[in-house]
Amino acid sequence: MKRAQELVLLIETEQERFYRIAYSYVKNREDALDIVHNAIVKALQSYTGLRRPEYAQTWFCRILINESISFLRKNRRFVPLEEVQETSDDMQPAQETYLDLYAALDKLPPELKTVVILRFFEDMKLDEIAEVLSANLSTVKSRLYRALKLLKLDMEVLDDGRS
Asked: What CATH number is given for 78-163 in this structure?
């Protein structure tokens, strides 16, 4: 019972962070809340399998990321071109750049996108990311550098298209 209480306390204290992670994948408030809810349910159902309570946050982040990726696979959504054009007419150049960056981020494979989100959106250190993903530090570094290279190339293509 003590582990369940610790898990609930962790979820309550880190709820905003967990929501941000889910939101960074789906870009929709309701979907992000659903993902966090599903992750909480899964975590509460399987918390007895958590061997080392000091890794509860890492363990829950892994569940949350898996739920986010699973949601994206099940619910591929496309925004009609008309909606994009309507909103882009009213935007400032900086807003367009942010949208371009998010669009480029969404094109990345899940394993690369996850590393970028955890590093730059959640300000996690590389060794923490390796722990969350159960990956070697060198693997996390190579994924991050590969993702950044792909993002840079994608952003350059978009800039060239505007010129």
From this structure: 1.10.10.10
